[in-house]
Amino acid sequence: MRPLRVAVLDEELPYPLTSGKRLRTFNLLARLADRHRITLLCHRNADPAEVPAAEAAFRKLGVETVVVPRAVPTKSGPAFYARLAGNLLSPLPYSVETHTSPELVDAVRRYAAENPVDLWHCEWTPYAQVLRRGLRGKLRRVPWVVMAHNVESLIWKQYTETEENAVRRWYVKRQWLKFEQFERWAFAHATWSIAVSEPDAELIRTEMGGTEQTEVVDNGVDTAYFRPQRDVDRDPYKVVFVGSLDWRPNQDAVKLLLEDIFPKVRAAEPRASLSVVGRNPPEWMTEAAARTTRVRVFGSVPDVRPHLATCGMTVVPLRVGGGSRLKILESLATATPVVSTRVGAEGLRLTPGKHLTVTADETGIADAILNVMQDPDAAADQADEGRRVVLREYDWAPLAAKLEEVWTVAAEQRVPRASSMG
């Protein structure tokens, strides 16, 4: 494979590694940077204190960074609600509109004018709009790929189905329909679309206009970093939830845990405890946890491994979501038992009952947690089986090689033989 000049568009510098999206982006780029010239163009991180260390981390990899001095607007305060109201007049979804800043569009335009680029890579679907505006009429003549961490319209459809407030449901449904229209354009016009699971890829191919030029590059895990700590005792009654706490599907899952699932577990097993671990917990979450016995929130921890090493299980009670869960891969890489809904475990090549415990929906989670507490040895055996699958199929190195192949094919603008990308 010849070295490529790849320009990557993203929302921020994906460092420190405090979210699933950051982990995926950083680990894939880190494994390709020594073979290709990669430039990352993005907005400034919401926390400006992160930027110096993030730029240093990418310099060490050999990745050039172009950071525009504008952060993506926050999702709180009066200005946020004013933007939501204003978005009613826009044909674009709120996320696309707020991430398509004039500053980043100008940066794309300048970079394209001053540098040869073999391939443009949109690291999240909304950034296809940045490329569209930055390259204007040239987009059809330029090879570009779009990374779909989720099929966003599917998530907004699920929001619509689970939202109980009539006014919010009316607004969310409009976001769903806008995202559906936008994604159909993006997947139909990209040289290649990249999904993180086969169910998402099939949805893009059959319903979102992606045709056959859609490939899967799974989520993965650093199996050298996430390893079992056999010398540490597990507390079979300690339940851990891990995830970015500023992501709406995770907030929905934690709300279910605090209000419904964990109270049922505690009523049956008073020794049970719950740790919620992840970056940027909202105020309502920390306040709700403080009012609940034996529940703690750990926000923006530098290392989740101590939490995984000492717990009896991780729990993934998602009822909204797409893509696949890095939190499940990290848990199983450390031989930590997992209890998940079907939605939470979708997209992973894992067998329910053999590698992890899966319930049809959130209503069965409490009983599943209690079953694991009552038989920790069986749960440990299950987690060991899951670890074997993760080691075999989800290490970042072969996944980066697959992304590299997609890049090469897209840059050459040719459709590969089925055998070469299968």
Question: Could you give a short description of this structure?
Answer:
The protein is of the alpha/beta class and 422 residues long. It folds into two domains: 5-220 and 396-421, 3-Layer(aba) Sandwich (Rossmann fold), CATH 3.40.50.2000; 235-393, Rossmann fold (3-Layer(aba) Sandwich).
CATH classification class of the largest domain: Alpha Beta
Q: Strand tally, please?
A: 13
Strand content: 15-25%
Strand order of the largest sheet: 3-2-1-4-5-6-7
Q: Would you tell me which CATH topology of the largest domain applies?
A: Rossmann fold
Distance linking N and C termini: 18 Å
What profile does the largest beta sheet have? 7 strands, parallel
> Would you tell me the overall average pLDDT?
93
Key attributes of the depicted protein:
alpha/beta, globular, Rossmann fold, 422 residues, 13 strands, 48% helix, 18 helices, six-stranded parallel β-sheet, 2 domains, seven-stranded parallel β-sheet, disordered C terminus
Detailed description of the structure:
The chain is an alpha/beta fold and 422 residues long. The chain has two domains: 5-220 and 396-421, Rossmann fold; 235-393, Glycogen Phosphorylase B (Rossmann fold, 3-Layer(aba) Sandwich). Helix content is 48%, strand content 16%. It contains 18 helices and 13 strands. The protein has helices at residues 20-32, 51-61, 77-86, 94-99, 102-114, 127-135, 152-162, 166-189, 198-207, 248-268, 283-290, 305-310, 326-333, 342-345, 365-374, 376-393, 396-412, 418-421; strands spanning 5-10, 37-43, 64-68, 119-122, 144-148, 192-195, 214-216, 235-242, 273-278, 295-299, 311-316, 338-341, 357-359. Helix 9 (198-207) links the parallel strand 6 (192-195) and strand 7 (214-216). It is globular and about 65 Å long. The two termini are 18 Å apart.
